[in-house]
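Reviewers of the previous submission asked for a worked example of the structure-prediction workflow described in the proposal, so we include one complete record here. The input consisted solely of the amino acid sequence. No template or homolog information was supplied to the procedure at any stage.
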Amino acid sequence: MRRLAIIFSPQCPANVYFIDKIREWAEPYGVDVKVINAFEDQERARTFLTRTRVGFDRHMFITVFIDDRWIPGHPGNPKFKQDLLKELGGSEDG
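From that input alone, the workflow returned the following structure tokens.
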């Protein structure tokens, strides 16, 4: 089973909405979704984030990994959804 990790900062109240949307988009693919609060589980979040430029040259409020591979972008951007679904093996139409 593929794994999808959503790492988020509770600073942005819209992240609850984005987490729900990402779960909805990934549901048809049978993906195991884990949600990691970067404030409450810093060590676990760091295991993902240290492999990216997140925190170095861009801020992080929410970011996603599929099978440990970073999916750049923000879920509010339509390109993010397209890239996410492409990585899961589908199309934007599901």
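The beta strands are 3-8, 32-37, 62-66, 69-71. We consider this example representative of the routine output the project will generate in years two and three.
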